[in-house]
Recover the amino acids of this structure.
């Protein structure tokens, strides 16, 4: 999730040290978008329709907290459907300024794929003097 100033909402799961986008693993036979809907409801109490998100892409990166493993993540963006609340395994939420990403420990996918995207978007928004909609960027993946 991001706010009008392009601060991104990241979460840290219980027992983890790195912050990442909200989301989780896709269950067997589950579509990525359905996993996102389920995970946002379970982790943040946010309810969305399955046709609301826009698919950003598929990214591969080393898994945070699991040395030697890789994750393939499907990333979506959508207009903020409600106020998030840390639930389930979410220990902490953090509003991160993309230009200050070095101040917090971030999962590799967040650091290498999402931060560069939102730094560029923030700069474009500042240059165009426009306001963007608040979005959620859930991360869903499977170990590969």
């Amino acid at each position: 999730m991001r706010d009008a100033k392009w601060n991104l909402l990241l979460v840290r799961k219980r027992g983890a040290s790195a912050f990442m986008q909200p989301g989780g693993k896709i269950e067997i036979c589950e579509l990525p978008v359905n996993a996102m809907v389920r995970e946002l409801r379970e982790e943040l109490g946010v309810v969305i329709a399955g046709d609301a998100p826009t698919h950003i892409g598929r990214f591969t990166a080393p898994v945070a907290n699991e040395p030697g493993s890789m994750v393939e993540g499907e990333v979506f963006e959508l207009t903020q459907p409600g106020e998030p609340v840390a639930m389930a395994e979410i220990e902490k939420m953090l509003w991160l300024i993309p230009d200050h990403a070095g101040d917090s420990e971030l999962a590799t996918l967040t650091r290498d794929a999402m931060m560069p995207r939102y730094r560029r978007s923030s700069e474009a928004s500042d240059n165009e003097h426009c306001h963007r909609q608040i979005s959620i960027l859930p991360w869903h993946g499977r170990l590969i």
The mean pLDDT is 76. The longest strand covers residues 70-79. The chain is about 25% helix and 30% strand. Residues 57 and 108 are 16 Å apart (CA to CA).
